[in-house]
Amino acid sequence: MPPPTPTVWTVRALLVWTTEFLKTKGVEAAKLEAELLLAHVLQTDRTYLTMRFDEEPTDAERAKYKELITRRLTGWPVAYLVGSRGFYLLNFDVNPAVLIPRSDTETLVGEALTRLKPLTAPAVLDIGTGSGCIAVSLAHQKKDSHVTATDVSPDALAVAKHNATKNNVAGRMTFLQGDLFAPLPAGATFDMIVSNPPYIAQSEFADLAPDVRDHEPRTALDGGPDGLAFYRRIAAAVGPFLKPGGSLLLEIGWKQDAAVRALVAEQPELELGPTIKDMGKTPRVVT
Ligand code: SAM
Ligand code: GLN
Question: Which whole number is the average pLDDT over 223-244?
Answer without folding.
Answer: 98
